[in-house]
Amino acid sequence: MTVTIATLGFPRIGPKRELKFALEAYWAGKTDADALLDTARDLRAKTWTRQAALGVAHVPSNDFSLYDHVLDTAVMVGAIPAAYGWSGGTVDLATYFAMARGDQGRPAAEACGPGCGHAPGADGVPALEMTKWFDTNYHYLAPELSPGQAFALTSSKPVDEFLEAKALGVHTRPVLLGPVTFLKLAKTKAEGFSPLSLLSALLPVYGQVLRGLAAAGADWVQIDEPCLALDLTDFERAELRRAYGALTHAAPGVRLMLTSYFGGYGENLATAVNLPVEGLHLDLVRAPDELEAALAASRESLVLSLGVIDGRNVWRADLPALLDRLEPVVARRGSDRVVLAPSCSLLHTPIDLDLETALDPEIRQWLAFAVQKVEALAVLAQALNGGRASVAAALEASAQAARARATSPRIHDPKVAERLAAVTPDMTRRRSPYDQRREAQRARLNLPPLPTTTIGSFPQTTEVRQARAAFAKGQISDATYEAFLRQETARAVAWQETVGLDVLVHGEFERNDMVQYFGEQLAGFAFTQSGWVQSYGSRCVRPPILFGDVSRPAPMTVDWWRYAQGLTRRPMKGMLTGPVTILNWSFVRDDLPRETACRQIALAIRDEVVDLEATGAAIIQIDEAALREGLPLRRGDWDAYLDWAVESFRLAASGVADATQIHTHMCYSEFNDIIAAIGAMDADVISIETARSKMELLDAFVGYAYPAQIGPGVYDIHSPRVPAVEEMTTLLAAARQRLAGEQLWVNPDCGLKTRKWPETQAAIVNMVEAARRARAS
Ligand code: GLN
Ligand code: ZN
Fold it and tell me: What residues does Zn(2+) bind to?
């Protein structure tokens, strides 16, 4: 008997983003369904055979998806809302993509950031609501269920893919999203209705799927219930027991490997170990301490899947150190009761480090992407089965890399540590309370009531993207690129003056991305060429890799600000990304607490804020688009996170005089549960997304008696639609019913980078007119 290895899921997009390009060609009508399905099949085949060749015994199938695995599950159980016009039978591609992206043929709205949950497809039949998958930057489509919902098995995808792999000689372990998590992720429009109440109706379909898999020859099936990493009620735990009792009964032929990830089981551990399943997966990266408890609490026959390799990050593991922990477990439990695995699906990591030819070799040896993580598992299994000596060279290389990383001067900058140690509480406080600052700012800025502004970026046109690409490839010179960007900036500034905006922006034409742009100028960040990770559907992001102590060698935005301000007498906002957002949209160090890394970034941003002020900026905006999405999965951990997140923002923002106005921006609208933290950030002005909620979400601010100024977005930039003046005056009136007039700003709900100029111009002209009318009324 030997220790085997499993992966819980592998990236779907392809090493060269083949799936993305196939999807987009299909959506654009350039290729047909066969071409798309061929690419998908080819990717699956390569993924299976590659994992099998690397020594994975439990190769997953049905982890592939054309768009999203939660959507696949909804389709599998026939949960297709009436709006999509489905009349039973197999769900065709048109219906599937309508659920994913809204109306056919309509281009997906682009997100404003990797974690932005803005659903594509603005008009026509809307897409299902898209939201973040637990605490990742992956977005799933929330199933929409209604009271009395009927379920029926309407897809043979799990069985088809199992057979497809079997035909290639790979015996897979199919993956299903578990019924309880599926229902917990679902949304409903019916008030007071809980989708979990549909469990009894749903279970028979799962029973059918499991029997189908058994008939096709599957022995193990992986069933994912990551809801076990959340706070659950006693009722929910009881429902899990009921569900797995029923499923074991319905399909006695298959052995279930129950997984949860993104954290420990915590309070749910006793429930999990006692479910009538044959295997249980533990996320030992996020919850290393749960191993002992699980060993002690579980019956001897339960197979434990030990998630020891980090599926959420890019660091190479220290294999000898892991073996020190694993060897006693194997000795105690028996090799046939232990499976080695990544902590979660590898969906959240880039695919292959071998594609990175430009990475600094020193940094590169510290990294492992999906393929390298599987290789590491193979080394671990070999060492456990054949002794450490049988893989001595691989173990030594791993230990060597770990030692090098622990001591590298590239990572450890004593000056950063000293500076951090010298941070005093007054550095996180503005000099005076808001009321006093407001007066100082009023005197300095002299703005009209309901001042108008935008969130920062203007359209990233084809020309802008082409110029950037040409510059990156060395096809155009520094000077040519710079001249081009200056011209774009000058045009944007002149246009803003003409339409009568009160507070201007330079337009962010020089920025590739709101995090990458800063990461590239800060010490401590590295970037990949092919390190793509799926964000949703065909959209992928390449998160920066935060590998070392962060500092700011030189000013990052000051020259652009100076240039832009030199073109106008109106105030030009300095435009920065905040420390929490930079942190949350990067791969972060695993050798330093997140909060320490965040404070380091905060100090670097603070330097920039202070320099902008010294250069003359009267208004500086520090975007924290990703503050909310960093919230931990369990409520009990929220306060600690919010404390250091807010403190980091304040550290970045508080180095300026009272008369300098600090803005922040957040791309979402759910503030109810974090309003105290928003208040504690102590920004002078916050702009938020509200356009789609008819200003109702302002109630959170009203209830909190939020003292400072707010720019509730008066129109949705995620759609090309140009809002009429009246629409925005109505929204402004609704806002004024809730807040004092002098608290309000007028702005769109996010940056305009994904829009085109004609609609942007028309919308802003209307917005300025709406503000004028509102002032007069
Ligand atoms: N200043 C950024 C922009 O306008 C903010 C983007 C965001 O919040 N996602 O593009
Ligand atoms: Zn935004």
Answer: 665, 667, 689, 750
- Same domain for 567 and 477: yes
Q: Could you tell me if residue 427 is inside a domain?
A: no
Instruction: Note the pLDDT tens digit of each residue in 662-689.
Output: 999 998 778 899 999 999 999 999 999 8
- In this prediction, the answer to ipTM > 0.95 reads yes
Which of 406, 432, 467 marks a domain boundary?
A: 406
What mean pLDDT do residues 79-102 have?
92
- Ligand 1 site-directed mutation target among 110, 457, 629, 668, most atoms within 8 Å of CB: 457
110 in a known ligand binding site: no
Residues in the 5 Å CB sphere of ion ligand 2? 112, 625, 667, 750
Residue ranges of the alpha helices (H) in 557-690?
558-565, 579-584, 594-615, 638-653, 675-681
What residue type is 295 in one-letter code? L
In this predicted structure, the answer to whether residue 40 has a pLDDT above a threshold of 50 is yes
Q: What distance in Å separates the CA atoms of residue 767 and residue 748, rounded to the nearest whole number?
A: 8
Number of domains forming the structure of the chain: 2
Asked, for residue 411, whether it belongs to a domain, the answer is no
CA distance 530 to 547: 17
Catalytic residue among 69, 118, 663, 718: 718
What digits encode the pLDDT tens for the residues 689-747? 886 677 888 999 999 999 999 999 999 898 888 999 999 999 999 999 999 999 999 99
Q: How far apart are CA 318 and CA 321, in angstroms?
A: 6
Rounded Cα distance between 751 and 716, Å, is 10
Nearest ligand by distance to the CA of 750: 2
Residue 131 lies in a domain: yes
215: its two tokens: 């008939």
Question: Which pLDDT belongs to residue 77?
Answer: 98
Q: Are residues 639 and 751 in the same domain?
A: yes
Q: Is 118 a catalytic residue?
A: no
Instruction: Give the count of beta carbons closer than 10 Å to the beta carbon of residue 710.
Output: 21
In a domain, 118, yes or no: no
CA dihedral 527, 531, 536, 538 (to 10 degrees): 110
Beta carbon of 113 within 6 Å of any ligand 1 atom: yes
- Give the domain range for residue 590: 450-524+550-776
455 Cβ below 6 A of ligand 1 = yes
Residues 378 and 512 in one domain: no
- Is residue 629 within 6 Å of ligand 1 at its C-beta? no
Q: Same structural domain for residues 340 and 468?
A: no
The domain that holds 133 is classified in CATH as 3.20.20.210
Please tell me the residue having the least CA distance from ligand 1 atom 8. 625
Q: Is 667 annotated as a binding residue?
A: yes
pLDDT digits (tens, 9 = 90+) for 480-530: 999 999 999 999 999 999 999 999 999 999 999 999 999 999 999 999 999
